Write the structure tokens for this entry.
Amino acid sequence: MWGLGGAESIFFRTLPNGCCIVGRCGLSSHTIDTHWGDHELVFTGTYEHTIDSKHRVAIPADIRTQLRQNKADRVGDGICLYVTLGEGQAMCLYTEHEFEKRSNELDDSDRAPEEILAYETLFYSLARRLEMDKNGRIRLPENLLEMAGLGTEVVLLGVKDHLEIRDRTAWKQHVEQALAGDRQILMNPRRAMRRPT
């Protein structure tokens, strides 16, 4: 806690959740959020891209705009993302904010400690922090590309709180099979939020 002097003392106290209590001594205080520009991003869309010979892939312009507007994921003028191996031959990209959030959620998990430890050992040892270049590209680690079985023709998918990079042909086949097998998979969002009876 610290204060500003003068006729009326004003105090500020930062809370663990990033909020700040502001008030005047002897009077009421108010809590305000200090995470200006640090909000939850929702990624959407399917983008066809090519990974070049240097293992670089371009982040789509509209996603770059989202990232630039979110101050939590900027380092100076640069943007950083974390990449790691995902489910089903995918590479997952997380903003720094979401990557840290994932860590906190794991600390609060109800799963057995041995299970969490095994997951964390793989998840974090394979993760890499990447900085986007001035042309909006990131360089993907060769070992992760090999593990995910990705070639040059890929899709970059917006999957709510993260991005995924998948093989283009395999993704198209997956979408066709999923829709052919169960048209209800794209249920109305209001139905999706209801608990099954």
